[in-house]
Write a structure and sequence with these properties.
335 residues, EmrE-like, transmembrane, 2 domains, mainly alpha, globular
């Protein structure tokens, strides 16, 4: 008689149940189990193993709360950045806003606990930041006067810090095991809804208090604003958020730093503006940093995947050994 702890059988123990009930020959069952337990790990389908990895799922409440917290930090970062532009020089704002990659690096190291090769990444961040600074300082054509440079620089620095906060926060809330089940469209939809319900009332408050007077744009301006909202906000934010979730906030920010040399290149082609050697030096520094970090990210991802697959293979072998033990135990009790 089969021991009670093995009965009733589960679906995974169907072979054990058949053996215990005498529906299959015991020698065949024992032989098949031995063969399966000795199965080479090279025959295991890695994709099927990865499907067995633990996954984290989000319900609507969790998704909404994540969007709410993200939205508040995101709004603060954008508001302080635009407020800083009002008081400081564009070149100063560009340099200080690029300190966000330093904040992202620090916050990722403190809260995500997933940053490896810390020294190499810090070097890459500093090289990229230095390249952006070289381009901004030596190649910018900024002849304006700052209204209140200290205040404007402070606003821009706060914006950079808040950017680091909400980029790191998004990855913190969506770890690797939750990537497949995190619906980015729903998340950004909630962000838009919260903006409309919570933040839209600030328009009349700021307008009537004189903090920021609102003027309805003309038709041409409205058209360009709508186009920018679709391309510069909707699509770009979706791609940015997916990149943060998949690649991490640090690598994403390094990719965004490429917009500085690429933007100036577009300006030179459209307006026929030429730049000096410092532009090419800064561009080379940014691209070299990005290429180096790409290689480092690839090696880390490869090593992490190999480690995860090794753990899943070990669990697979352990289940096979357990199944073999159960079949042998059932066979002995049936004799």
């Amino acid at each position: 008689m089969v021991k009670e702890k093995y009965w009733p059988p589960t679906e995974d123990d169907s072979e054990t149940a058949e053996l215990a009930s005498g529906n299959i020959d015991s020698s065949e069952g024992d032989q098949s189990c031995v063969e399966s337990s000795n199965e080479s790990t090279s025959d295991i389908d890695d994709s099927k193993l990865e499907e067995q990895a633990p996954q984290v799922k989000f319900n609507n409440k969790e998704m909404f709360m994540t969007s709410l917290m993200f939205c508040m930090i995101w709004f603060g970062a954008n508001y302080f950045y635009n407020a800083g532009l009002k008081f400081t020089l564009l070149s100063s704002s560009t340099i200080l806003s690029n300190t966000s990659m330093l904040f992202v690096f620090l916050l990722s190291w403190l809260f995500l606990k997933s940053e490896t090769s810390v020294f190499l990444k810090l070097v890459g961040v500093l090289v990229s930041f230095s390249g952006a600074t070289v381009i901004t300082v030596f190649e910018s054509d900024d002849d304006g006067q700052a209204k209140n440079r200290i205040l404007g620089d402070a606003f821009t620095l706060i914006s950079a810090l808040l950017y680091g906060c909400y980029a790191t926060f998004l990855k913190y809330k969506v770890p690797e095991e939750a990537e497949k089940n995190f619906d980015m469209s729903v998340f950004l939809g909630y962000v838009g809804l919260i903006n409309i319900v919570v933040l839209l009332p600030l328009f009349p408050i700021f307008h009537f208090t004189g903090i920021e007077v609102f003027r309805w744009p003309n038709g041409k301006t409205l058209m360009f604003l709508s186009l920018n909202a679709f391309l510069g906000s909707c699509i770009s934010d979706f791609c940015w958020a997916k990149s943060v979730v998949i690649l991490g906030p640090l690598f994403t920010q390094l990719g965004i730093s490429l917009t500085i040399p690429l933007g100036m290149l577009a300006t030179s082609l459209i307006d026929h503006v030429s730049f000096g050697w410092t532009y090419y030096l800064g561009t080379a520094m940014i691209f070299l940093s990005f290429i180096g970090m790409t290689f480092l990210q690839y090696m880390e991802t490869k090593k992490k995947r190999e480690k995860q697959l090794a753990e899943l293979r070990q669990k697979y072998r352990d289940r096979k050994k357990l199944k073999k033990y159960q079949i042998q135990e059932a066979r002995e009790n049936c004799l």
